[in-house]
Amino acid sequence: MEKTRIAVIGGTGFERFFKNAEQLRLGTPYGIAPTVSMGKIGDKEVMFLPRHGPDHSVPPHRINYKANIYALRKAGVERIFAVNAVGAINRDFKPGDIVVPHDFVDFTKLRSTTFYDEAPVTHIDVSKPYCPEIRRQLIDDGKKTGLPVRDKAVLVCTEGPRFETPAEIEMFRRLDFDIVGMTGTTEAVLARELEMCYANVCFVSNMAAGIQEKLTPLEVSEISNRITPRMQQLLIETIKALPVKRKGNCPCAHALRNSRFQ
Ligand code: HPA
Predict the structure, then answer these.
(1) 86 lines ligand 1 (CB under 6 A)
(2) Among 12, 56, 163, which is best to mutate for testing ligand 1, by the most ligand atoms less than 8 A from CB?
(3) Per-residue confidence (pLDDT) for residue 1, from 0 to 100
(4) Atom 3 in ligand 1: which residue has the minimum CA distance?
(5) What is the pTM of this model?
(6) Sequence spans of domains, the chain
(7) CA neighbours within 13 Å on the CB side: how many for 82?
(8) Dist CA 62 CA 39 (whole Å)
(9) Considering the domain 5-241, what is its CATH architecture?
(10) Cβ(190)–Cβ(65) below 8 Å
């Protein structure tokens, strides 16, 4: 029987998921991905990939996003849940909130955000940039497990590694963006290009620059340590509840259909 493989990409403060798990190093044409650990949740095989490396040594602008996403695809993964720390631009959001964004704006500058640098020229549709099916499951399971999940938010992704200036955040606020992070859009696009489902599970670690006095990575990891058990619980419940096979009614599963000129 074909295996069901789901991946969780861990972010800041979420560098481990399974204890004593089998470890894999996966090579790709784009380089080697960080060590992936394998576990089981219910009837599904789950691969965990810490995007900053197991010891948090890779900054967001230097992550080899293409190697990470390609490695998961090659290993048979069809659905990805990605955890991200974010700052809140929307003043209704507060540190500790869990957010499943529905849309994004990409303000990165230096990254390669496509596998299709050459022919055939490929334009994938991102009208629904995060998989609606796995978002829905996350939101429903959040409700069931009593974890309040914010289900509507625009995520803006900045290049980093510095935090934003107050003027940048004020501009983003006027444009109605809700949360800011440094990773959650690049992976989403690359996953869609390989016809994988992808959803972000963000947690607010701080109010964005200019809204609170100053920002420190320590604060991000403190909130992350506090919230990670809840995020893990949400991921476990969601993964258990997912159908064994993805239904394919989302835009992700057939993203390459109609994406080319001929
Ligand atoms: N800005 C960008 N990335 C972040 C932030 C922030 O305020 N907090 C956590 N990740």
Answers:
(1) yes
(2) 163
(3) 45
(4) 181
(5) 0.95
(6) 5-241
(7) 28
(8) 27
(9) 3-Layer(aba) Sandwich (3.40)
(10) yes
